Amino acid sequence: MSVYVQNGMAYPCFCTSRRLDLLRREAVSRGEVPRYDNRCRHMSQSDAQAKTESGVPHVVRFKVYLLTHGLFHNYKNEYVNGIEAQNQEKDR
To answer: What is the sign of the dihedral through the CA atoms of 3, 74, 22 and 48?
Structure first.
């Protein structure tokens, strides 16, 4: 696994293109902005490692935390200036 995953800054995502496309279509049909649902974010490290070692295709997703006053927090909970967006994570 990458150094980012090992340091808790990112996580492996095993979602298929088909599943991601379905999420996208469902969001659009509800009039929402498509976004990833963080399904793989809370997978245990041992489960993720087992899937990776068995060859299950994956990508690495960086963790993005709650927005406060329109600014992202990075993995060290420091402000990242100049980036404004909507709150993207509710289950922190």
So the answer is: positive
The rounded Cα 82 to chain-centroid distance in angstroms is 21
What mean pLDDT is predicted for residues 67-78?
52
Please report which confidence band the pLDDT of residue 3 belongs to, taking 50, 70 and 90 as the band edges.
Answer: confident
Backbone φ and ψ of 10, nearest 5°: -150, 175
Residues written for the chain: 92
CATH of 3-63, one of 3.10.310.10, 3.60.140.10, 3.40.50.1370, 3.90.800.10: 3.90.800.10
Strand partners, 34: none
Is residue 1 within 8 Å of 49, Cβ to Cβ? yes
Instruction: State if pTM tops 0.70.
Output: no
